[in-house]
Give the backbone structure.
Amino acid sequence: MPETLQERVARLIRDSLGDPGSALPSEAELVGRYGASRNTVRAALSALEAEGLITSSQGRTRRVREISRWEWKMAEWEKAHNNDGDAWANTIKAQGGTPKNDLQILTIQAPAHVAKALEIPEGTTIQARNRLRWVNDEPHQLSDSYFPPFVTDGNELFWNPSDLGVQGGLLAATGHKQAKWHDTLTARMPTTEEVQRLMMAPGTPLLVHTRVGYDEKHRPVRYMVSRMAADRVEVSYDLDA
């Protein structure tokens, strides 16, 4: 099927994109260059925005998007806890970034998917620790952790409103060291709320990483769900043969 004029203009603009951060010609310049109507040029630019290649104008000059990914080594990051910060923050610092956590501690009734992961009855009263993580003042990740009652009950550290850095991690410090994990990694398009909270560019998929941590008795001690803009993170694993 032959390409439409809009597809042709989008292809030509795509092929002519400069370095990350460089400005695109104005709509008027593109109209003159490609002999297309302003509506066609705008539609072509919208298509490139949806592909995540250029920024939205929103009254400003469109630019080639700058994509900076932070590596998340899933086999190692749980081991990076110390008194100076949590494991995730320390992995970002090691890469030269400046991390920040906005933490909210809630008491909730476990919804079905959380109850299933923690192997507890649905509706059980549990603690949720919800974080919005930032890197260099850019929202980077929504990370929600859920704990069964036997982990949090009587442990004052879990109810501290500040984001404590604890040697070995919060679970280990309270006698619930994780012995193994089960991970899943999926992708989907974000909700409107996720786009707003993570300030995501149009057309950017959301990576969803879940991890269930188990203690030495094979009991789930934490269920964590992390949601990340796909253009801001590189998830990696090291596997032994």
Q: What stands out?
A: The radius of gyration is 22 Å. The chain has a mean pLDDT of 88. The beta strands are 70-73, 99-109, 125-135, 138-147, 180-188, 206-214, 220-229, 233-236.
